[in-house]
Amino acid sequence: MTVRFFPGKKQQKTSLIAGFLSEHHVSHILASGDELTGTTFHLGEDPALEVNGRLFVDPNVDALKKIFHIH
């Protein structure tokens, strides 16, 4: 599984996602906005995760649990 984390300007949401990844030992790459092209949103404003090529913008804890199949 390839996971890239794009931190955003929203510090609280960025911290929540980073904490989730750390707590559940999800191996990920910290990426910058320059590495993602062809997006229809303003990358850098909202944090985002790319998991196996699928982009998730500003996911909450429930969404993260579903993405990583954690019950």
Structure description:
The chain is α+β, with helices and mostly antiparallel strands. The protein has a single domain (3-67), classed as Glutaredoxin (3-Layer(aba) Sandwich). It is 28% helix and 20% strand. Strands 2-1-3-4 form a four-stranded mixed beta sheet, with no helix packed on it. Strand 3 and strand 4 form a beta hairpin. The longest helix has 13 residues, at 11-23. The model has no long low-confidence stretch (mean pLDDT 88).
Topology:
Layout: E1 3-6, H1 11-23, E2 29-30, E3 48-51, E4 54-57, H2 61-67
Parallel strand pairs: 1-2
Antiparallel strand pairs: 1-3, 3-4
CATH topology: Glutaredoxin
**Mean pLDDT metric:** 88
> Quick one: how many beta strands?
4
Number of helices: 2
Biggest sheet, open or closed, and with what strands and sense? Answer: 4 strands, mixed
- How far apart the termini lie comes to 18 Å
Counting helices, strands and paired strands, the structural category is alpha+beta
H-E string? EHEEEH
The CATH class? Alpha Beta
Radius of gyration: 11 Å
Shape: globular
How much of the polypeptide forms β-strand, as a percent range?
15-25%
List the domain count as a whole number. 1
Strand order of the largest sheet: 2-1-3-4
Helix content: 25-40%
| Spans of at least 5 consecutive residues with low confidence | none
Going by CATH, the architecture would be 3-Layer(aba) Sandwich
